Amino acid sequence: MTDARQPSATEAAFIAAVHSGDTARFALITERHRRELQVHCYRMLANYEDAQDMTQETFLRAWKKRESFRGHAALRTWLYRIATNACLDFLEKRNDRTPVPSELPDPDSEVLYLQPYPDRMLPEDPQESVVARETIELAFIIAVQHLPPRQRAVFILRDVLGWPASKAADALELTVASVTSALQRARVTMREQLPDRRLDWRSPATHELSNDERGAVKSYIEAHERNDLDGLTSLLRDDLRFAMLPDPGTVTTTAREAVDGWVSNGLFQRGYDDWRGITTTINRMPAAALYLRTPDDPAYRLFTIAVLRIVHGRIAELTGFDATDKPWLGLPPTLRSGESPSSTSPAHGPRHRSHRGTSTPTS
Fold first, then answer.
1. Which SUPFAM superfamilies match (predicted)?
2. pLDDT at 345 over 90
3. Which of the listed CATH numbers 3.40.50.11810, 2.60.120.430, 1.10.1740.10, 1.20.1270.360 matches domain 9-193?
4. How many CB atoms lie within 10 A of CB 310?
5. Average pLDDT of the segment spanning 45-73
6. What pLDDT score does 61 carry?
7. pTM, whole model, 2 decimals?
8. Looking at domain 211-336, does it have CATH number 3.10.450.50?
9. Concatenated DSSP letters for 274-317?
10. 267, 270, 276, 282 alpha-carbon torsion, rounded to 10°
């Protein structure tokens, strides 16, 4: 992302639209950046619906400030600056957008406002896969939320998008020294939050699922389908981290205790024993979209999404999200009895076979 010395053809057209008051042309040009701006807002806010709102707010602010664009910087840079500040203004007004203490015995915290990000809404331009997998996965999004808002903005602009310090300082109306100091502090926090993860966010990284990941999610769904508790237990690591958002209570538990707990809460009991699943990816992670059919209901209804982090073929983290009333996930709301579910095809990933499956009523 480098500033343009001379406006590009697109930017020249944008300036012409500004001068002529051509709202349709203005909207057409800015709309090309919607997906990447929405991902940027999601990293800042960890909530898909908030990111949608702030992306729209970005376009409204861009129209109001249209006369300020002279083409000295790239249009993309100008829009990112507006989006970043829209998110900072949002965070300043909301006191419910910070991590809260978790129930884990070790000092930890939870991001209860976290929402999944559908892969189909990621930018399609390969260049934009600076939306590298590592910077859209849940662990990264959660870790970023532990940074104070302005530090968060500095970190994303500098270490994720690769902006030079001078450009980030200009966007945030800070000095270069302040940006450098904020970035150093942010990197320390990120290392603490992600001690076992790669920290060079700008180097190339694949977003394809590994064979281990594909195999584990397939086995996870099939174990539920067969009511195979031993098989399910064998898929889980003994240091499994489990959360069902937006409910509080992330826990670290053994595999057997996790399965026993799910059974005691109703899994495989009447009303929670007839499931189907669609294999998909969420936040570029393997996931199962799970459908529940209750007695006397002819249809399986979208109920929850289980997002899995796979380590050496076993499930290390399971994050469940309530999937009801979220049409933006792009999943069919129902599956008919006898219908063969088809897997979703993420914007940047392999197509997966689908399987029938079940999950816990709380996962």
1. NTF2-like (SSF54427), Sigma2 domain of RNA polymerase sigma factors (SSF88946), Sigma3 and sigma4 domains of RNA polymerase sigma factors (SSF88659)
2. no
3. 1.10.1740.10
4. 22
5. 94
6. 97
7. 0.88
8. yes
9. -EEEEEEEETTEEEEEEEE--TT-SEEEEEEEEEEEEETTEEEE
10. -40
